[in-house]
Amino acid sequence: MDEPLFDIDLNQLPNDGERVIEFEQNASELNEYPKEIDPFIGQYFLSEEEAFVCYKKYACRTGFSIRKYCTDKRKGEVKRRDFCCQCEGKAPLKLFDPSKEQRNRKSVRCGCKARMRITFRKSFDIFPQEWQIIEFVKEHNHELLTPLEVRFLPANRIISKKDKDCILLFKEGGLQVSQIMRVMELEKNIPHGYLPFFEKDVRNLFTKIAKKHGANDAEDLLRHCRIAKEENIKFQYAFMVDEQRRLEHIFWSPAHCFDWYHKYGDVVVFDTTYKVNAYQMPFGIFVGINNHGKRILFGCALLRNEKTTSLQWLMKTFVSLMKKHPKTILTDQDPWMSEAIAKELPATKHSFCIWHITSKFSGWFTALLRDEYQDWCADFYNLYHLDSPEAFKHQWPQVVAKYHLDSNKHVVGLYEIKHFWVPAYLRSYFFGGMTTTGRSESINEYVKRFISSHTNLEKFVRQVSNIYFLKFFIILVILSLINMSCCLG
Q: Which residues form the FAR1-related sequence 11-like HTH-like domain (predicted)?
């Protein structure tokens, strides 16, 4: 089990009480002594957008939200524009369909007359074209919000370009939305919950970006791999498309992973137990260990399925791109996997992960053995650690007979494949201390920090390729948070 990357919980907030009071006092002072004057009849603007921004700022100071309303066009050009309160007009009648679930949310429209009307003015040629306020209604027929409440209005929850760039950077670094919010609060030195946007707005931003890039997902992925190959010749990748030119399989190995494989690629663990992408394609990883006993990544793959043909393509591609066969490979006991490795890696010793075998014992034997189940597990553990094949052959039937499992299909099957999982039969092969796919399982868990089931293909490949560098990025972020917290304290 991996140690947690850091012990700090970004969701645990320091005491912001004093800062909240100070922040609210400052907001009240700003409201009491506004830096900008209210709009007035006769005021000029250089553009329609400038007038809209002015009225929006006034609405934010006053406690309401606005929208664009009537437009007077002549010969295709706008000559007059109205900006009104969000509560202007009446709610349209809503058709009720009893067969569907509908939200009966009350409309905010109550016939409010507050508005600002501007008109286009063109005077002498030496003056620019301008817009002038010709009507300005201040009165509202509804209660206005306080300056601190008005920030909850959707029109005022805006993510600036600078904040958007920071959010995407933190997202790529593996931070969750709640953690991103906390980092930005500390960076801006504001109390918890006082950002100009909410978690929902950040999630909507991610969804919008995902939809934008979803249409050309496969093209973006292949473009990324092609550029990476041009930047470093050691970057390896290969892909396969089906009859309809749709991406079916892809394998890639970043340049540093390619170097690692040539140094430490004698033993490889391969696992496909984790599906994490927008298309639910099986994610396969090739993992090993270095000379310090640390797990390292050799390569990754996204497959259409886990059938023999897909796995054969992957194994053949892996050997072709990585330039050598591994001496030993460790996988689960999937028969399709065994067939693919036997055909494409005939010189490689194939072994089964003991964890994948014993994890099924509960379902196989608990109901059958009942109170004897724990004793069976203990005896099986002793069999597993026997030193010689002769001792295993001698003691296996005795233990099986003890629990009356002579005809059990699972026990019979385990004995038939003993050359794939019993250490006594594998001692002449090098496994680097790895007897389970736990090395890849832990990397799978680590991958989950950076990508989700909604991650598109291009970002998926880029995130996995950078995964070791992202670890250090997160550490730097946490250290900066610690320094910020100390300064604020």
A: 159-211
